[in-house]
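Data availability (excerpt). The following record was deposited with the supplementary files.
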Amino acid sequence: MYLIIEKIKYNLSPDSYYVKDKSEDIDIAEDKLRGYNLINTDKDRSYHIIKFQETLVLTEKMRIAS
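Predicted structure:
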């Protein structure tokens, strides 16, 4: 999954990050990113793509018997 992250830069406090959108397809995510960048008129906002991978959580059922 690909997440589109909105970054808001502040002068006197730490920057904020929000998940703006998501897509399973990188091409669609890049199209959305271009769209967000095209309509953005605020110089303190920017948009970025990151690839999100869920962490593997091992359960007792997955344990290999010794």
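Summary of structural features: The chain has one helix and three strands.
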